[in-house]
Amino acid sequence: MKKIIYFLLIASFLIPHNIVFALDSAEPAICNYEYPANTKLKYDFEFLGSKKSTAFTPGEVYEVTLYIKNTGTMPMFSDDAGCRMRDITRLGSAKPGDHENPLFPILINHDTGWLSPNRIILDQQRLDPGEKGSFTFLVKAPMTTGVYREFFDVVIDGKQWISKPFVVNFDVGTFMSENRDKLQYVTTSRLITQDNLNGSKSIEVDISEQRMYLKVGDIVIRSFPVSTGKSSTPTPYGHTQILAKQEVRVGGAWPHYIMPKWLNFRRGGYGIHALPSIRYDNGYYWREALNHIGTPRSHGCIRLLPADAVFAYDFAEIGTSVWVHQ
């Protein structure tokens, strides 16, 4: 018996290492993919839409399907493909990234489509560039009613997020249609109740922080750095409201500042606006002002970066309340 064991041990060391490696790294045929010549490799996708119930009854379980198109140059492989040597593509909870989705179902002996409370499995074993695919999963509607606004993003797990988050609304309970347009301003995953939708828009500016907060009710939907008035020309404190809106306002006094996306919030020429340019300099962007964002440097107005000013201008309405404080 000892001779037999000894012979088997010796034989095991005689197996060529390359054969052992080939057996360990064997992949299913679906994992084989030849990239076209001169291809710049990248992952990308387009969100196409969803198939789900219009309204969800609290406590009930539903099936949801989200559709995407592979717009990159690399194939996407699912957990079900069995490809150990390939990157795996999943759908992840976004904004904030990797948060536990409140609709994740805890079900025994069910194929839910979820890998974890923040990861969903790709339906197709392999999704080639140009092909359409899907993520099908079960959700359990929470007992608290409202709109569960959930952001998702495709993630190459352990490697990269595609960073193209898209939103899907899940209406739990009575369908809420009134003031529903306010949902567009909520840019993080969260529960929105009817009270939230009924909340008024407001703008808050904290001079000590040099930040502006755009709100719907008590929800802060966006926050921007600002540049308020310097000590010799301070921005006035207090509660006011948006009195007027102008796409572009030109200052009457030299050097005739050109101020895009003007929101007049106090009499006396005080406004919220994008970084100015200077009229006598043919309207060239006043780049010095870019370095002032986050510090009090203006003549009393509240300056914003250009893209932030566009959002604030579209958000604000005549009569929107403004609160400036230290």
Task: Give a written overview of the molecule.
- The protein has 326 residues and is mostly beta strands.
- The protein folds into 2 domains: 45-198, Immunoglobulins (Immunoglobulin-like, Sandwich); 201-325, L,D-transpeptidase catalytic domain-like, CATH 2.40.440.
- 11% of the residues lie in helices and 37% in strands.
- The protein is built from 4 helices and 22 strands.
- The chain has helices at 2-14, 17-24, 194-198, 306-315; strands at 45-51, 61-70, 76-77, 89-94, 114-116, 119-121, 126-127, 132-140, 146-156, 160-161, 166-172, 190-192, 201-206, 211-216, 219-225, 238-241, 244-250, 257-266, 270-274, 277-278, 302-304, 321-325.
- The strands form 5 sheets. Strands 4, 5, 6, 9, 10, 11 and 12 form a 7-stranded antiparallel β-sheet that branches. Strands 15-14-13-22-16 form a 5-stranded mixed β-sheet. Strands 17, 18, 19, 20 and 21 form a 5-stranded mixed β-sheet that branches.
- Strand 13 and strand 14 form a beta hairpin.
- The longest helix is centred in the N-terminal third of the chain and has 13 residues, at 2-14.
- The termini are far apart.
- Residues 1-24 have low confidence and may be disordered.
